């Protein structure tokens, strides 16, 4: 298990890169650190690896406090954001290098290096030097080198940033498979939410040196803790509709422009204490039903675009000044929907699913968790 307690990292000139990071990673788990550029992902990873001194806080591997241990004493395999390969060594010797340090015979370490190279689709490059490789090929060499020594902990910093979209998907499947075979506790840094969701058991979302939420991909997607996480997870992104929570007699309503939608079901008790607050309704494109006629508790949308994505239609348009995307399963409705585009006489009417997320517009916190 890796536990990080109250980790803080300040650089010169008062740059606070990490502010009280707590993270617990169980054995054999695969965790992704996800967030925008500059949020502190690499700094976190480098503190775990021992490449950076921490300002305060603690890094534990099982029961051992490794906060002040040298990187070489941590039994870590690491792939850096800028892959540092040995320029004078052939690819095969770059990969086999950690085994050489361990005193493994040449024959044995070349055999292992070759096996790993096959898995990462670079076996045809083994006799080249790093300068004769593309960026993506160099990244895979670095990955082979990190994996070949079968480390206890694997740390990957944007290991696939230089691969094309298709190879990215192939290689991330390979990494996941090797990680499961070797049962190695792993942390991957990425700014790609799709990659994080595909590969990781749990994701820590960082912003500004702080963890915003740490949970499974499913939980982050369905129940984001705040607007930052909600904005980051999912494609197409979550829709946000500005509303106000108001009472109408006994009822609680979302007031949206001139429309109002009754709050019902499990949301009612959660939201009642926040009556009067300005909120943002967080609604995924598939949490909306589309109708042709106005009805109670529906919202009018002026359709601006209809895209046929093959398995579904994506309608986008304006709902009281907010841009909204809705998916419609029935692609056979394409012609009918396209006829609505730009026709203000024939709007569509949206109805929300029973559960949606509701964020306080000012504190940005999810009010329904
Ligand atoms: N050596 C350094 N000296 C001063 N500031 C630094 C140093 N290294 C990083 N920082 C700052 O710390 C913050 C976090 O940087 P970090 O490299 O961890 O970001 P990141 O999340 O990995 O971003 P990216 O996705 O761009 O790689 C940034 O504001 C960065 O400018
Ligand atoms: Mg980085």
What does this structure look like?
- The protein has 369 residues and is an alpha+beta fold.
- The protein folds into two domains: 2-232, 3-Layer(aba) Sandwich (Rossmann fold), CATH 3.40.50; 239-360, Beta Barrel (OB fold (Dihydrolipoamide Acetyltransferase, E2P)), CATH 2.40.50.100.
- The chain has ten helices and 20 strands.
- The protein has a six-stranded mixed beta sheet, sandwiched between helices.
- α2 packs across α3 (106-119).
- The relative contact order is 0.11.
- Bound molecules: adenosine-5'-triphosphate and magnesium ion.
- Magnesium ion (MG) binds next to α1.
How would you sum up this structure in a few lines?
With 369 residues, this protein is of the alpha+beta class.
Defining key terms:
Rossmann fold, OB fold (Dihydrolipoamide Acetyltransferase, E2P), 20 strands, alpha+beta, binds magnesium ion, 369 residues, binds adenosine-5'-triphosphate, six-stranded mixed beta sheet, five-stranded antiparallel beta sheet
